Amino acid sequence: MDVILIPGLWLDGASWDAVLPALRDAGHRPHPVTLPGMESRSADRSAIGLRDHVDAVVALIDSLDGSPAVVGHSGGGAVAHAAVDARPGRVSHAVYVDCWPVGDGDAINTGLPADGADLPLPDWSFFDDEDLVDLDDELRARFRARAVPSPARVASDPQRLTDERRLDVPVTIVACEFPSGSLREWMAAGEPRLRELSRIRQVAYTDLPTGHWPQFTRPAELGRAIAGALPDWS
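Structure tokens predicted for Alpha/beta hydrolase (234 residues):
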């Protein structure tokens, strides 16, 4: 199966490199995406918004035969969900890595500090302890060395969804920072950020205990978790 891998903020397609072997071993064809404005630190991000990232993924879906799966990490989950909304009849499965579908009108994160049109990787002190589990000093240094500022509007633009057939596309949540049981408890309690997830008709959960960046801290396990979530056909 073709598997489109959408990185979160500050990351390009190469951030999935250590995840790819497990997917290929399972017989899948991974397509890691470098989204617009993430090609280099010097790229012009001033005119790039969330929809530009969504449109890039939709164009990739359209270029592939069959019914690919989409995988979104962190903020890339919003992009994945909007791509499902744009092509609900083409996407076979959506996997959200330490994130969940962002609903219509919501944004990825309006609280991140911007520098003009750029959204640089904040100091580690900005993040919660749960984010940083297993991200040791070496991994933090490697992450910061490769980080590219994201377009600021990608994090603050409101999500736009129009096709309720998106709710029929099966979803798997790979829960890292918090166990899947907690997510289900919060959803049952009416947590607003999980309202869109509560509407999806078929949801499975896989627990992968680590911090917010499992592609760095537990990449092989993440690859196997994604592969295990996908339909058993190619």
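The mean pLDDT is 97.
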